[in-house]
Every structure is written in C-alpha cells, then in structure tokens.
Design brief:
4 strands; globular; 52% helix; mainly alpha; 2 domains; two-stranded antiparallel sheet
C-alpha cells in the first residue's frame, strides 16, 4: 500500500524514511496552520504554490464575534484610548490561546551529543587560532580542508536517513575522500589537523562500500557512536567552514602537467578505437 502525505495526499517516494508523514516542509507547516486554525475557529482553504498565502485563510465573522465576547477586559492592557474605544477593541486571537508549558524530556542521543561536544573533544583552540590569523598558510590549509570535510560529513549523515542509496553515490564520495586525503594541502596539515584521523577513517569505510558489487543500492545506517562523532565534528567545523554543495567543490589540488594530460587523453582515445 502506497503511503500518502497527510496534508496533500501526494504519494510519498520510496527514498523518504518510513516515519515521514509529509512530502515536504511546506505541507508540514500548512498542516500545523490547519490544526491551529481549528483551535481558533478559523477555517482554512487549500491553495496552490502560485497563489499568495495571504488569501488562503477565510476568517468567519461569527467566530471573531464569539472570540471577542469571550475576552475579558483584564486580558490585555491599552496604553491610550477612551472608554468608548475600549468597548470596540478586540484582543488579538493569539493572546487568547493558552499554550502548554514546554516540558524538557531526557534523550540519550542529545545527552551523548552534548557530552561529545562539551567534554570529550574540543578543537576550538585550533580553529580560533586559524580564525584570528587568516593570512597564515596553516590557516588557509585548515580552511580548505574543513570546507570539504564538512561537505562529506553532511552528505554521509543525510544518506544514512534514506532507506536505500545507490552504490554509485558511495563511489563518488569515496573518490572525493581519496582525493582529499591525497591532496598536498591535507598532507601539510595532517599532523596538526584535529579531524585528520576521522577523515582517514571515512576514506577506509567509503572505499569498502564503493567496492560492493552484489547490489545496485544499499542502506547506510550509521552506528550510534559514529553518528555522534560526525555531528560533533560538524558542530565545530561549522565555525570555520561555510556550507557548500558537493558539486561546487574540487577535492583535489594536484594539477597535472599539460603534456601528461594530453598523453592520457591520447591513450584513452586509442583504447576506445581498439574496442
């Protein structure tokens, strides 16, 4: 049985997680608005993406009058105005909603992540030094590596949420990780960079996944401890490295000589002709 979006009844794709109720964030937000409108006595009508959101809510005049009658004079205060004007003033609808007090719940994942960020490993001193001295070569190398490592970490975390991922995606990530680990920039800072061991471990694990030949797609669930480690690393790397897309980055800084490039192209053309 196909699972549908709880708001727009659109069929949810197989690439979404099994617990997902809505097809996108817009439907999730609109469902929230609909629930709030039912509480306030406001009826909502669906609208297309091209329509203005301001025309999507029709307020019943009877509901507004009932709402105004239920408001006592002590529920809000006026800065200025006569008594006659006070009779015609209607309190904002949001002021009449009694929101429950938020209760904090204990979470093993949040506790472990907080511990990893605040207690176990803190590379803030290294990154702060690079931020305060941006003209130093070590700072430039740290920035170059951190931007690419953040992109890899965020993609790995995102892929771990999917039910199945094509093996070709892991091959692209493995190739990018190998290029980053083999780059001259990384080799210059690998002895002092805080997440050098993490990057090398990612290269090993992604290489193993890329060599999988038994299936076209597979699931990539992250272990509890590894996910905590990656999210803590992303937390600190985000202070120094902006977020860029995978397609916007080049993971290798090794420039091949023009003659060698031309030779490789010639060998490739000859191989294709022989086939």
């Amino acid at each position: 049985m196909e699972k549908k979006c709880a708001y727009c009844d659109k069929v949810l794709g197989d690439y979404l997680r099994t617990t997902k109720k809505y097809c996108n964030d817009s439907c999730k937000q609109m469902a929230y608005y609909a629930r709030q409108n039912e509480t306030m006595g406001i009826t909502s009508t669906s609208f297309t993406e091209e329509e203005d959101a301001s025309s999507s809510f029709a307020v019943s005049s009877e509901a507004m009058e009932n709402e105004a009658d239920s408001i006592s004079s002590s529920s809000f205060e006026l800065d200025v105005g006569d008594k006659d004007e006070e009779k015609n003033v209607v309190a904002p609808i949001s002021d009449t909603i009694k929101r429950p007090k938020y209760e904090y719940h204990s979470s093993a994942f949040i506790d472990a992540l907080t511990n990893a960020i605040q207690v176990q490993f803190n590379p803030s001193d290294y990154f702060d030094y690079c931020l305060k001295n941006p003209r130093l070569e070590v700072s430039k190398h740290c920035f170059w590596v951190s931007v690419r490592l953040r992109c890899l970490i965020e993609n790995i975390i995102r892929l771990s949420r999917y039910r199945t991922v094509p093996v070709s995606i892991f091959k692209q990530l493995a190739q990018a990780t190998n290029q980053l680990c083999s780059s001259n920039t990384f080799l210059l800072v690998c002895n002092s960079y805080p997440y050098a061991d993490l990057l090398i471990h990612l290269r090993t694990s992604l290489d193993e996944l890329a060599k999988t030949q038994l299936t076209v797609s597979m699931r990539y669930p992250l272990e509890f401890g590894k996910k905590i480690e990656l999210m803590a690393a992303r937390h600190y790397i985000g202070d120094i490295a902006p977020r860029l897309l995978f397609s916007q980055l080049v993971f290798s800084d090794i420039v091949e000589p023009p003659k060698e490039k031309k030779k490789k192209k010639k060998d490739k053309d000859q191989a294709e002709e022989s086939d």
